[in-house]
């Protein structure tokens, strides 16, 4: 099979950094030249920006691929780097977290206060018998204790496995078993969409299925709802923490000490327990956070909207920002509660200057319309970021104009749970920005686009994205399953990491992500990218969101089938048949007749994972008239039924 993907959708807009922005840019051009001259030396220098209890002398060991070690003989404490270090440097009074609860309660926590809480929590964990290397499951809402728990676990060299608070008892159970967690940290409940939902009851249900490794459940009081209690096993976080010592010395751990296990979102299959370790991970998280977002820790207010249950919440809510001494916003709830302007109200309230969010959120705001954000003062914003899916050029432009006031940089960051940190992104202040393209590898990252046979593709042809050299924050394996680790990522190309995404370079060498390799369509022998056709559909005035799949077709092999959500004001003016006809013609005009969808279904919702990614494989099942596959990682399992009803 030929990996080439045909494409015609060209995005020609370019945005140069303003001279004012460039003049104060954290990132400098020399990062690229330094990394090109001596890649390992470059990463060693970045690592030395952290505090090492014992300095390392070796940078990379790649003698046993695909198992890498970075900074192996060095020792550090990840939590010390995120906390004590800043307090000792005189920044104890700086706000680490502006926390905003969904009901409107809030809390400002300084670096000194956060450090003190983590010290107590570390003592509490030790008193419960948790030792270095033990696994602790976290099942919490977006409250400060989630951050405190993660850092306390890291501080004693234990390993956290954060499970997103929306997951079912079954999902939680399988993750607890897989990691053999000794302790579960949860809350009585959390707030979402204006209501309190239970969390402890889910933990009870999960443990009720049998989990012999779990000795204790620590429960944070958040909503005050009634909870069942198992004496001896269940303990109130607040009661316990009040009784332990306030002092705690952070001990040094080896650079390769496991830091966390995190299960992937499961957009394409069964989630994998991705293992990350300490020194290399923190190095890349801190470096990318500072340079990709142009962080000035003394003046910026940063906000990443991701839940700590996802990798973005690990690297860009907890470890990157705190390692850099940033001030950030942490928000518990949903964007539209109690009103559709909640996010913009928060930005106005805290004068947020850097916002990092996902295309799915941006498209949902586009759907509702610009009149909502326009009611708020968003002029504090100076950098915008995107992650999770390709950002359609139309959504990029909307983000820059409506949220960013038309002149501030938008960086599209490509990476994965497995990569641990950002791999492809523009650097604001240096790179000329191009809407829809993730652009270039960050300094120190080597990647390529190859054919199915592993040959570099020439010119602007599409192919498979591979990472050609080990990187500091790379996964160290799949928990308990080294064979699956090798098979999934390394078997295809030997020494190159296979990311599972399609990509191409344009004439300037900028990288465009084309979608999951599993989702690429083959129409009459032409390979078409889901991302490009979706972007074309989203570029039409009436479209809010679109998902495209290839469905078996007698004449063309596969045919393009699209599922489209219209913007709210559009739904009345036209019938669905008319809208779908217009959209088919629009794609044919913009990309070419070959890409004209066989069908465009107008729907109200799309199937998404809990982290907001579109699950195209379910739509493919529907388009091909098959029974719908595994829906357990869907955010809302009723969605597929409602789409099916609309389509049939
Ligand atoms: P699973 O591997 O279990 O299917 P997942 O891949 O959805 O789950 P994540 O690690 O959260 O889990 O997602 C990484 C994927 O998200 C990438 O492989 C890519 O497909 C997509 N992605 C992330 N950021 C971008 C981006 N900026 N542009 C395009 N795609 C992106
Ligand atoms: Mg993946």
UniProtKB/TrEMBL annotation:
<feature type="domain" description="AMP-dependent synthetase/ligase">
    <location>
        <begin position="88"/>
        <end position="479"/>
    </location>
</feature>
<dbReference type="Pfam" id="PF13193">
    <property type="entry name" value="AMP-binding_C"/>
</dbReference>
<protein>
    <recommendedName>
        <fullName>Acetyl-coenzyme A synthetase</fullName>
        <ecNumber>6.2.1.1</ecNumber>
    </recommendedName>
</protein>
<feature type="domain" description="Acetyl-coenzyme A synthetase N-terminal">
    <location>
        <begin position="29"/>
        <end position="82"/>
    </location>
</feature>
<feature type="binding site">
    <location>
        <position position="524"/>
    </location>
    <ligand>
        <name>CoA</name>
    </ligand>
</feature>
<feature type="binding site">
    <location>
        <position position="540"/>
    </location>
    <ligand>
        <name>Mg(2+)</name>
    </ligand>
</feature>
<dbReference type="GO" id="GO:0003987">
    <property type="term" value="F:acetate-CoA ligase activity"/>
</dbReference>
<feature type="modified residue" description="N6-acetyllysine">
    <location>
        <position position="613"/>
    </location>
</feature>
<keyword id="KW-0007">Acetylation</keyword>
<dbReference type="InterPro" id="IPR000873">
    <property type="entry name" value="AMP-dep_synth/lig_dom"/>
</dbReference>
<keyword id="KW-0479">Metal-binding</keyword>
<feature type="binding site">
    <location>
        <position position="312"/>
    </location>
    <ligand>
        <name>CoA</name>
    </ligand>
</feature>
<keyword id="KW-0547">Nucleotide-binding</keyword>
<dbReference type="InterPro" id="IPR032387">
    <property type="entry name" value="ACAS_N"/>
</dbReference>
<comment type="similarity">
    <text>Belongs to the ATP-dependent AMP-binding enzyme family.</text>
</comment>
<feature type="binding site">
    <location>
        <position position="527"/>
    </location>
    <ligand>
        <name>ATP</name>
    </ligand>
</feature>
<keyword id="KW-0436">Ligase</keyword>
<feature type="binding site">
    <location>
        <begin position="192"/>
        <end position="195"/>
    </location>
    <ligand>
        <name>CoA</name>
    </ligand>
</feature>
<dbReference type="Pfam" id="PF00501">
    <property type="entry name" value="AMP-binding"/>
</dbReference>
<keyword id="KW-0067">ATP-binding</keyword>
<dbReference type="InterPro" id="IPR011904">
    <property type="entry name" value="Ac_CoA_lig"/>
</dbReference>
<feature type="binding site">
    <location>
        <position position="501"/>
    </location>
    <ligand>
        <name>ATP</name>
    </ligand>
</feature>
<feature type="binding site">
    <location>
        <position position="538"/>
    </location>
    <ligand>
        <name>Mg(2+)</name>
    </ligand>
</feature>
<feature type="binding site">
    <location>
        <begin position="388"/>
        <end position="390"/>
    </location>
    <ligand>
        <name>ATP</name>
    </ligand>
</feature>
<feature type="binding site">
    <location>
        <begin position="412"/>
        <end position="417"/>
    </location>
    <ligand>
        <name>ATP</name>
    </ligand>
</feature>
<feature type="domain" description="AMP-binding enzyme C-terminal">
    <location>
        <begin position="532"/>
        <end position="613"/>
    </location>
</feature>
<keyword id="KW-0460">Magnesium</keyword>
<dbReference type="InterPro" id="IPR025110">
    <property type="entry name" value="AMP-bd_C"/>
</dbReference>
<feature type="binding site">
    <location>
        <position position="516"/>
    </location>
    <ligand>
        <name>ATP</name>
    </ligand>
</feature>
<dbReference type="Pfam" id="PF16177">
    <property type="entry name" value="ACAS_N"/>
</dbReference>
<dbReference type="InterPro" id="IPR020845">
    <property type="entry name" value="AMP-binding_CS"/>
</dbReference>
<dbReference type="InterPro" id="IPR045851">
    <property type="entry name" value="AMP-bd_C_sf"/>
</dbReference>
<comment type="function">
    <text>Catalyzes the conversion of acetate into acetyl-CoA (AcCoA), an essential intermediate at the junction of anabolic and catabolic pathways. AcsA undergoes a two-step reaction. In the first half reaction, AcsA combines acetate with ATP to form acetyl-adenylate (AcAMP) intermediate. In the second half reaction, it can then transfer the acetyl group from AcAMP to the sulfhydryl group of CoA, forming the product AcCoA.</text>
</comment>
<dbReference type="InterPro" id="IPR042099">
    <property type="entry name" value="ANL_N_sf"/>
</dbReference>
């Amino acid at each position: 099979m030929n990996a080439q993907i045909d494409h015609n959708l060209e995005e020609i807009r370019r945005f140069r950094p303003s001279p004012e922005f460039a003049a104060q840019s954290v990132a400098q051009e020399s990062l690229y030249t330094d990394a090109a001259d001596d890649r390992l030396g470059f990463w060693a220098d970045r690592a030395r920006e952290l505090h090492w209890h014992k300095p390392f002398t070796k940078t990379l060991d790649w003698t046993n691929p695909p198992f890498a070690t970075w900074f192996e003989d060095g020792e550090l404490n990840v939590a010390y780097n995120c906390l004590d270090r800043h307090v000792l440097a005189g920044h104890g009074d700086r706000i680490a977290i502006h926390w905003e609860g969904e009901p409107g309660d809030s809390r400002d926590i300084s670096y000194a206060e956060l450090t003190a809480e983590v010290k107590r929590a570390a003592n509490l964990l030790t008193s419960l018998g948790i030792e270095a290397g033990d696994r602790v499951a976290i099942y919490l809402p977006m409250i400060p204790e989630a951050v405190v728990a993660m850092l306390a676990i890291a501080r004693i060299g234990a390993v956290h496995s954060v499970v997103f608070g929306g997951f079912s008892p079954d999902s939680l159970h399988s993750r607890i078993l897989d990691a053999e967690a000794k302790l579960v940290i949860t809350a009585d409940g959390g707030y979402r969409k204006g209501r309190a939902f239970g969390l402890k009851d889910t933990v009870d249900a999960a443990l009720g299925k049998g989990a012999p490794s779990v000795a204790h459940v620590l429960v944070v009081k958040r909503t005050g709802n009634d909870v069942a209690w198992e004496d001896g096993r269940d303990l109130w976080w607040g009661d316990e923490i009040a009784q332990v010592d306030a002092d705690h010395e952070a001990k040094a751990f080896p650079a390769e000490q496991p830091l966390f296990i995190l299960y992937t979102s499961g957009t394409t299959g069964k989630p994998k327990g991705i293992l990350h370790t300490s020194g290399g991970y923190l190095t890349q998280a801190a470096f990318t956070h500072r340079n990709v977002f142009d962080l000035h820790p003394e003046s910026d207010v940063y906000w990443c909207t991701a839940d700590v249950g996802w990798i973005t919440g690990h690297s860009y809510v907890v470890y990157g920002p705190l390692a850099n001494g940033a001030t950030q916003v942490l928000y518990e709830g949903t964007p539209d509660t109690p009103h559709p302007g909640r996010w913009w109200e928060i930005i106005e309230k805290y004068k947020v200057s850097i916002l990092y969010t996902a295309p799915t959120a941006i498209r949902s705001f586009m759907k509702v319309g610009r009149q909502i954000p326009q009611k708020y003062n968003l002029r504090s914003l100076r950098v915008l970021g995107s992650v999770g899916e390709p950002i359609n050029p139309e959504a990029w432009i909307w983000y820059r104009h409506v949220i960013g006031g038309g002149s501030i940089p938008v960086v599209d960051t490509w990476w994965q749970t497995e990569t641990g940190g950002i791999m492809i992104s523009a650097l604001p202040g240096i790179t000329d920005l191009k809407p829809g393209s993730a652009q270039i590898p960050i300094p120190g990252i080597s990647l390529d686009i190859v054919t199915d046979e592993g040959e570099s593709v020439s010119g602007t042809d599409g192919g498979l994205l591979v990472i050609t050299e080990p990187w500091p924050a790379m996964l160290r394996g799949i928990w308990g399953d080294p064979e699956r680790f090798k098979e999934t990522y390394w078997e295809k190309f030997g020494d190159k990491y296979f990311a599972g995404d399609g990509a191409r370079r344009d004439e300037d060498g900028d990288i465009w992500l084309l979608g999951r390799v599993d989702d690429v369509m083959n129409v009459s022998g032409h390979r078409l990218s889901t991302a490009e056709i979706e972007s074309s559909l989203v570029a039409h005035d009436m479209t809010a969101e679109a998902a495209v799949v290839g469905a078996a077709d007698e004449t063309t092999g596969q045919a393009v089938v699209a599922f489209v959500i219209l913007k709210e004001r559009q739904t009345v003016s036209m019938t669905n048949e008319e809208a779908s006809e217009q959209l088919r013609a629009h794609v044919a005009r913009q990309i070419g007749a070959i890409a004209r969808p066989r069908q465009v279904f107008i729907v109200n919702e799309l199937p998404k994972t809990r982290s907001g990614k579109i699950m195209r494989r379910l739509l493919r099942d529907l388009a091909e008239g098959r029974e719908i596959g595994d829906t357990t990682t869907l955010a809302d399992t009723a969605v597929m039924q409602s789409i099916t009803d609309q389509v049939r």
